[in-house]
Design brief:
The chain is of the alpha/beta class. Strand 4, helix 4 and strand 5 form a beta-alpha-beta unit.
């Protein structure tokens, strides 16, 4: 398969970085968004030193105006987007009876509304070109729920609802839409959890370990080749066996 243009939202995070590197290594032109320019430039320089050239475009995916401007900047730098990975996400954890509307809205806007905000500016181009790959990064907690994460679980479950509807609408245009639902991954965020708590999490995972960001990047890459063109509307669980739905 020839190289395509890929946009990975939230690409400077742990999972996002692994996805960017995997797609770049496969020969794609890769871009991601940022909000903090200083941190993004440092991240870009680090990846460049490892042999990966990733384009940057400023944009807050939680707002439609920012997201569209970001997409247009990506198009200006590297070309029309063929592969979109909706990976941006945040947490604002607390039990629901203590949750504020701000904590609810921040998570819904960044994790779920961003799927509309970023996908809408690229979908018509994909339909015109008769080829596209859209992949949502959801979560095990969107499948099974999680104490203290009503906002996060609702957003992540909604991402797959978005996937299966969009998949039906665009299948005849050569566009596939799929979801990857990671379990607990050894990112900086998870490793910052107290060791005692982390050990309790690992004890619930049949494989006996946290996942690696590179394993999620591999799951994403599975959906991209032309050979995967008959797989659409799927949710690929990558959680070490912690949750086994069907």
């Amino acid at each position: 398969m020839t190289g395509r243009v890929a946009l990975v939202t939230g690409g400077t995070g742990g999972i996002g970085t692994a996805i960017c590197k995997r797609l770049a290594a496969a020969g794609h032109k890769v871009a991601t968004n940022y909000r903090n320019e200083e941190k993004a430039k440092a991240w870009q320089a680090r990846l460049r030193s490892e042999g990966f050239e990733i384009a940057l475009a400023k944009g807050d995916v939680s707002t439609a105006e920012d997201a569209e401007a970001m997409v247009r900047e990506v198009e200006r730098q590297v070309g029309p987007v063929d592969i979109l990975v909706n990976n941006a996400g945040i947490t604002r954890d607390t039990t629901f009876h203590r949750m504020t509307s701000q904590q609810w809205n921040e998570v819904i806007c960044t994790n779920l509304n961003s799927c509309f905000n970023v996908t809408r500016p690229v979908i018509e181009g994909m339909r015109e070109r008769k080829w596209g790959r859209i992949i949502q990064i959801s979560s095990i907690n969107g499948q099974k729920g999680q104490y203290g994460q009503a906002n996060y679980a609702a957003a992540k479950a909604g991402m797959h609802g978005f996937t299966i509807s969009l998949a039906q609408e665009n299948a005849r245009f050569g566009i596939t839409v799929n979801t990857v639902s990671p379990g607990y991954i050894g990112t900086d965020m998870v490793m910052a959890v107290p060791e005692e708590v982390r050990n309790k999490i690992v004890a619930q995972i049949p494989t006996g370990r946290l996942g690696e960001p590179e394993e999620i990047a591999y799951a994403v890459s599975f959906f991209i080749p032309d050979e995967a063109g008959w797989i659409t509307g799927a949710n690929l669980s990558a959680n070490g066996g912690q949750y086994m739905g069907w």
